[in-house]
Amino acid sequence: MKRGAMVVGLGLLGLVVVGRVREASGSGSARSGPLKEAVYAVAIPVYPGARLTDIMGGSYYEETGGAATFQSQSWFFEVSDPLREVVAYYRERMPPGYRPAEAEAGSVAFQWTPPGAAEGESVTVIVRAGRLQIGETTRAGAVGPGRPPARLSESHRARRR
Q1: Is 27 within 8 Å of 49 (Cβ atoms)?
Q2: Of all helices (H) and strands (E), which one includes residue 126?
Q3: What are the start-end ranges of the H helices in the chain?
Q4: Share of the chain above pLDDT 70, in %
Q5: Residues 66-72: contacts with CB within 8 Å, 24+ apart?
Q6: Short-list 45, 28, 153, 134, CA closest to 93
Q7: 10 has a pLDDT exceeding 80
C-alpha cells in the first residue's frame, strides 16, 4: 500500500527535469527560432523583441522505473514591454479554441489544446512582468522526426504575422 501511494505521489508530481539548455538569444519565427523543436508550440508566435533565456524539459512517469508517459518542454524569455501589452498581443494571436488558464497572482496564462492532440497534450503561455513562458506537454515520443507540428488554418497564420 505504501509503495502504491509513493508511485501515485510520484506520478502526480510527474515532472522530472531531464534537460536544461541555456541559449544566449533567439526570437523570430517558430520554424527557425527557439520553438523549432516543438510539436505544438510552433503555433504560438514569440513576442517581438523577446529574448530567450532558458529552455527546460522533462518527462512524466506513472510509476517509478516505468516508461515516460508525457514529455514537457518550456521556453523562457525576457520581455521589456509592459505586462498589459504582452497579454494583449497573445489575446489577439492565440490559436482558435484557446482559453484562460489559472495563473499565480500578477500573471496571466492561456492554454490551448491543439486539434488532433491526444488527451493530456496542450500548450500554455504564461505572461509575467518582464517574463514570458511558452510550454507544451505532449505524449512521450511525440517530439522529433515522424510527428508533424500542428497544422494551422490560413486565418491563424495571417493573425500570427
Answers
A1: yes
A2: strand 122-128
A3: 2-13, 83-93, 154-160
A4: 68
A5: 67/140, 68/140, 69/139, 69/140, 70/14, 70/120, 70/121, 70/137, 70/138, 70/139, 70/140, 71/137, 71/138, 71/139, 71/140, 71/141, 71/142, 71/143, 72/15, 72/135, 72/136, 72/137, 72/138
A6: 45
A7: no
User: How far apart are the C-alpha atoms of 60 and 45, rounded to whole Å?
Assistant: 26
Please report, for the chain, the start and end positions of each structural domain, with discontinuous segments joined by +: 2-143+151-160
Round to whole Å and give the CA distance between 126 and 111.
9
Who wins on pLDDT, 8 or 91? 91
Instruction: Tell me if 41 sits within 8 A of 123, measured CB to CB.
Output: yes
Give the tens place of pLDDT for each residue, 87-106.
999 999 999 999 999 999 99
pLDDT tens-digit map of 18-32 = 232 223 233 344 455
Q: Tell me if 79 sits within 8 A of 126, measured CB to CB.
A: no
Cα-to-chain-centroid distance, residue 82? 21
- Number of residues written out for the chain: 161
